[in-house]
Every structure is written in C-alpha cells, then in structure tokens.
Specification:
With 279 residues, this protein is α+β, with helices and mostly antiparallel strands. The protein contains six helices and 15 strands.
Length: 279
C-alpha cells in the first residue's frame, strides 16, 4: 500500500522478502524512480497519475489525528491540511492555506508512464463523486487504448483530454513529483471553489426501444440545457434538452432529485452511462 511509504529499491526489496508482489508507491516517487524500483526488485509497480496530493510523506501524516482525532492513515483523514490557518512569521502574520497542495495531473506524462514499464496507473478517488470517477477513468482509459492501437499519444489528443479533466471540481493542476520533486509552487493557497460549472444530472437506468433514455436525476435542471452523455465507447454525446418530460409524458419546468425523466436516445448510449450538464 502507498501507506507503507515505499520510495526506494531497498524498501521494495524489504517488502519482497515478505511476499509482496506489487508495490504501490507513494506520491513522492518520480516516474524514473518507479522504473528503477521495478527493474531492481522485479516487482510490479503502481504509481499515482491523478488526484489529490498530500503535503506529508505518504503514510506519515498525523495532522488529522491531532486536530480531529481521526486517523489519516486508516481512511479517516479529515483533510486538516486544507484548512485556513493563521500563519505567523517573525515579521508578519496572515491567514493562509500554506499546507494545501494543488491536484496531481499526470496526463501529459502518460507516454513516459507506459514506456517506463509502470504496471498500473493509480487515480486517487477517495470521497470523490460519480462525475469525477466517470470522467477521470474515461480519460485515462481512452489514452491507454489509443497507445495500444497507435503508439505514442500526440499532444493534440492529450490537449482534448485535458479539457475533459477540467469539467469537474478540482484544485489547480500540476504534475506533482512525477518528473521533478514538488516545490513551493505546488501549494494551493486559496479557498476551494467550483470553477468548472459542470454538474451531474444523473444516470441512464434504461433505454426504451431505441426511442428515448430514462435518467434517474440527482439534481435540478431546467429546459434548454445542453446535456452530455459519457458513453463506454470513448464518445461524449451531446443533446439539447428543449423540453423535460416524465415517463407519463408530462412536461415539467424543472427536475428534482430522484426523479425519472426521458432524454433523446442516440446510438452509443447504454445503461449506466453518466449524464452531465453545464450549469
């Protein structure tokens, strides 16, 4: 586990002696270091490529324990490092988020991940919502599929996928310690807020005779909104929701959570696809 803070060859060999077959390296490891650990230990290696970053060494943070009584290394982290603190220095005092980190985005390093022999890309997703999970897994899966068929992924393709990774709430992105160690410019010194404007509408729960889709809504949406269906075949289908209808064909002015509505069907839409919209 990343909680073991395995960051070098000697540590990897230690765990190998205890029967470990895969090392999930801490976020502090670079791609180059991960490749060396894999080569010198003969073990599979898994490395973070996307998600929240921690200001402490993986598996060694006790701030949450101290401030909230919740063990950060047993799944109970209260993210105390994200809080605003009164930072006092010899000459100054100010409010600051000085322990909060930007989010890891290693999309542009994915070719190096593959060419370095990293066995698995790890996405941090603890306590994240379905829009995050669907979008991130879709983007990186599409990149791996592209490489498998065509070889190295061009920047133009990665630029398109980067836009997708901006369609949900996140802190400012950086590439962590994947290439060079994270430094002072990795600090996210501002209050968190939603910049993306995208929200989850709901999930496709059924399709009726290829005529319309039934969506279980999770939030309010008004007529005229443009919706996007995230499919399983690397396609995002856009539709204009000019009118909103219930299953009884009743036209409504807005939806409410846990309501079933109809949306237009397009080829490629399947059950369990996620539906999002720009708000």
């Amino acid at each position: 586990s990343t909680q073991a803070s395995c960051l070098n060859v000697m540590s990897g060999k230690f765990w190998k002696n205890y029967g470990v077959t895969r090392l999930i390296l801490g976020r502090e490891a670079s791609i180059e270091e991960a490749s060396k650990i894999k080569k010198d230990t003969g073990l599979e290696v898994e490395l973070f490529i996307h998600g929240s970053m921690c200001m402490a060494y993986s598996g060694n943070c006790t701030i949450s324990n101290f401030t909230q009584g919740r063990d950060s290394n047993r799944g109970g982290c209260s993210h105390s490092c994200r809080f605003e603190y009164d930072l006092k220095t010899k000459d100054d005092s100010k409010n600051s988020f000085f322990m909060s980190s930007k989010d890891l985005n290693g999309l542009y390093e994915i070719n190096t991940f593959i060419e370095s022999g990293i066995d698995s890309l790890k996405v941090e997703g603890r306590m994240k919502g379905p829009l995050y999970a669907a979008t991130v897994s879709k983007v990186y899966s599409e990149c791996l599929d592209y490489y498998k068929i065509h070889g190295p992924i061009p920047k133009e393709f990665l630029d398109q996928k980067y836009e997708e990774l901006s369609k949900f709430t996140h802190r400012s992105y950086f590439n962590g310690s994947l290439v060079t160690p994270a430094s002072h410019d990795s600090v996210y010194d501002e209050r968190e807020h939603n910049k993306s404007g995208f929200k989850i509408l709901g999930t496709v729960v059924d399709i009726y005779n290829d005529e319309f889709c039934i969506v279980d809504t999770k939030t309010k949406i008004l007529p005229g909104a443009e919706i996007e269906v995230l499919t399983f075949n690397n396609e995002t289908i856009k539709e204009n929701l000019n009118i909103i209808q219930t299953l009884d064909n009743e036209v409504i002015e807005k939806t409410h959570p846990n309501q079933l509505i109809k949306i237009p069907f397009s080829k490629g839409i399947e059950k369990n696809n996620l539906v999002r919209f720009f708000s």
